[in-house]
Specification:
Structural class: alpha+beta
Order of helices and strands: HEEHEE
Radius of gyration: 39 Å
Oligomer: single chain
Length: about 100
């Protein structure tokens, strides 16, 4: 048997019931200032920010970028070959061939 998918409405109801149970069990919800939960001892947690190493020198790769961009440029379209004239037959009103005509 396949489990039915839970909808957003079901999830909201479940969360509301959990919050109500918490409050009924003498739980208390604390209000905190925005951004306060990201602070450690009143300061931002800088251990994961990645600024601990000194700035590294970068290797210039302008010639590589130029080569890649050159490859991306579309080549000009090749000139179309001239179409050869075609031989077309002309019929009279009764369907009999009259003559041949060259058509481009």
């Amino acid at each position: 048997m396949i489990k039915p998918k839970t909808t957003k409405k079901d999830t909201r109801k479940e969360l509301e019931s959990l919050v109500d149970q918490f409050i009924k069990a003498k739980g208390e919800i604390q209000q905190i200032d925005m951004g306060e939960s990201g602070l450690v001892d009143g300061k931002y947690n800088t251990s994961h920010m990645g600024f601990s190493e000194p700035k590294k020198e970068r290797t210039p790769l302008n010639h590589v970028v130029a080569a890649l961009q050159q490859k991306k440029k579309p080549s000009p379209p090749a000139p179309l070959p001239k179409k050869k004239p075609k031989k077309k037959i002309i019929y009279d009103d009764f369907g009999d061939p009259i003559r041949w005509v060259w058509e481009e």
